[in-house]
Write a structure and sequence with these properties.
Number of domains: 1
Strand content: under 5%
Shape: elongated
Largest sheet: none
Order of helices and strands: HHHH
Length: 118
Amino acid sequence: MTESVEAQQIMLAAMAGAMVVVFGAIHAFLLAWAKLRGSRKHLRLSWAAYACFMLAVVVLAWTLHFSGFWFIVIFIMLVGYLLAPHGIWHLSVATHGHDGDTPALPSKAEFKGGLDHD
């Protein structure tokens, strides 16, 4: 990281950083939605969002001239973000005591019942 970073690269790095956050969130949301609904379409979209997330991370690393040790950090982050949403899903299912891999969605009555404070 001894090279100077030009203004264009700073703007590209800022946009890539924003895309890391956006595509990371989209990946996690679509993965959870796919598991709730049992939808292969949403699962494929989740993987597409993860691919965009990876691309944004690579662009961010390239624009900021990361090298050496930072490649290890980036690799660990990519693997961790690939595995974390799956682990969180299994933890949530185990914590809330649902049978099977997919919990039942709450009904409208359950949502309404939770809002009444009589």
